[in-house]
Amino acid sequence: MRLSIPISAFVAAIVGFGGTLAIVIAAAKAVGATQVETASGVTAICLAMTVECLLLSWRTKMPVITAWSTPGLALVAASSGFSMGEAVGAYIVTGVLLVATGLFGPLTRLISRIPASVASGMLAGIVVTFAINAMKAIPADPWLILPLIAAFFVIRLFNPALSVLAVLVGGGLAAFLTG
Fold this sequence. Notes:
Helix content is 82%, strand content 0%. By secondary structure, it is mainly alpha-helical. The chain has two domains: 131 residues, no CATH class; 43 residues. The longest helix has 27 residues.
């Protein structure tokens, strides 16, 4: 087995979880959640995903991974003026609509006709605010952020599979060492 396979899996798991976790926290902050409410929400999401993964994996006899709605979270995080109750209500309605999408064939077929490029573009439009905010953070701590950006692009020239891992490990190490 090539070394890039487990490295890619590790990076995908960490970045996939950590990246969306940052969006979960940003969404909670956008609706005015307290630190305790945010921690409770993150714990509930993680426990629900754990139970879902275990049950679905056991039932299908194959590894199954579930996920939260990154586009939905990004949309809430990029918005303002909503209360915690309104956000929870929106997620309940969205959950009901997702179940309806899976249960009713015509609706499923209609949704599947949305081009992937349109869905990706919608997500990119929402997530671009996070990328812009990352760039705005450079003046706050250029000695931390700029070397990580440079490391990403330099390492990517030689080994794209290791570039994200190097930045992930380097950023974590730098954050740990600097407190």
